[in-house]
Amino acid sequence: MKMKKFAALILGITMTAVLAGCGVQGAAPAAPAAPAEEPAEETAEETSEPAGGVEITVTTTFAGEDTNAQNYKDSVAAWEAKTGNKVSDTSATSDETFKTRVITDFEVGSEPDVLFFFNGADANDFVNAGKVVSIDDIRAEFPEYASNMNDDLIAASPADGVKYAVPVNGYWEAMFVNTKVLDEAGVAMPGADYTWDQFIADCDKIKAAGYTPIAAALGNIPHYWWEFCIFNQQTPENHLDIPQSATDATGAQWVAGLNDIKDLYEKGFFPDNTLSATDDETFAMFTDDKAAFLLDGSWKVGGIVGACQSDPDDPSTLDADKVAHFDVTYFPSKGNRKTTDLVGGLSMGYYITTKAWEDPDRKAAAVSFVEHMTSDEVVPLFAQHTASALKNAPKVDESKFNPLQVKAMDMMSGVTSLTGAVQDLFNGDCRVSTFDGMPDIVEGNVDAADAVQEGIDVYKETIE
Predict the structure, then answer these.
(1) 164 φ, ψ to 5°?
(2) In terms of Cα–Cα distance, which of 196, 405, 185 is closest to 290?
(3) CA separation (Å) from 34 to 47, 148, 459?
């Protein structure tokens, strides 16, 4: 990620935007405004405010424990009240089942009018099929569409290099910490220079104190450990490379990363039932003060805070003492990766489908809806302690955030880079041998190199 782009990204997620680790002395200037358009006679197709009474179908991942589920509902209600239109909502929690459902909907012609979805390889099928409309094509009729966004931070589809999805909020992945467990084990809170060797030593202390060092369900969700242990063999510059074989330089890094997970397993740092437990079960170990470390994404902040409320849906029931036991920090570094180099970015956004675009009424309604959901007023509600692509990122009022969100902002102020997840490029069946096969790898039933090679072979078939 180029420095100017990164500085602009951090501006949307931190209080200060001063990145000393990168040598940046201040925030990158906002992108210059586009030249004013000459006044033109407005037609029905040039305005994004359709006549009321149109119903559009919208699918997002703002559901379940997602921190923004309620923000989404409130924002939809505001748009409906403003325009007189209606949203038929089919949102669901993001997982592999959700991804499969979306792809299937496109295949059978049941796609929504507006879709909030991943902008990486997961979207290749419907992008290649011409089922979504590019931002440039939309701007040809609606020139102000996404004009409040920094185009440099809008991700292009890997399928054709074209930009389709308008981002709202980004993500980061980092290590959550139960400081109560650390205190009981005599371990200090990790900082910005935390190394892999220090992490191993701390896990030994935590285990000796009778606690589980790492809350993870390797048989269910090994994704985050897969990602970071591979990243630890690399740098931000080459993390998104896909190996040609398990024996080339990148392939060897992948194998080494998986073997680090195997080493952690053999040391007994994961739960005893890590190969059979669900992610929900190991998450409960973490929030119930039985495990010290949880590697997850920014979306997990809401789940942790919810576990500290007597009523998960009522922030006023937050137990201040309990939430104070949780913090978030950087994943321990190994090799050339800096501790402060994180996995993250703007990996999702709003698509308008060709199906909606070819219907004059729903076209205008879809454009209006996306413009509302990606406006300067609405985006900050969703971005909060994460990321946005707004040209003019708002200042953050800490008083409006819970303690864990504030700690997340403090952590993000020290980040030196955000790099996308390589698993989003190496997706679908390519990951089966190392994701579903993780139990066999860590138990020694399958050599990590063989598992990596199997995944590479599947990957090559998908790109032929």
Answers:
(1) -120, -40
(2) 185
(3) 18, 10, 41
Fold of 171-343+417-463: D-Maltodextrin-Binding Protein; domain 2 (3.40.190)
Q: What share of the chain is helix, strand, coil (3-state, %, to 5)?
A: 40, 10, 45
CB 254 within 8 A of CB 459: no
CB 253 within 8 A of CB 230: yes
Burial class (CB in 10 A: 0-12, 13-18, 19+), 2: exposed
Rounded to 5 degrees, what angle do the CA atoms 305, 309, 314 make? Answer: 100
d(CA 102, CA 441): 31
- In 3D space, the residue among 178, 262, 175, 173 whose CA is nearest the CA of residue 212 turns out to be 178
Instruction: Give yes or no on whether 7-16+51-170+346-394 and 171-343+417-463 have one common fold.
Output: yes
Domain boundaries, the chain: 7-16+51-170+346-394, 171-343+417-463
Pick the CATH number of 7-16+51-170+346-394 from 3.40.50.2300, 3.40.190.10, 3.40.640.10, 3.30.1330.10: 3.40.190.10
**pLDDT tens figures, 215-254:** 999 999 999 999 999 999 999 999 999 999 999 999 999 9
H-helix or E-strand spanning residue 98: helix 96-107
Distance CA 408, CA 171 (A): 12
pLDDT digits (tens, 9 = 90+) for 326-365: 999 999 999 999 999 999 888 899 999 999 999 999 999 9
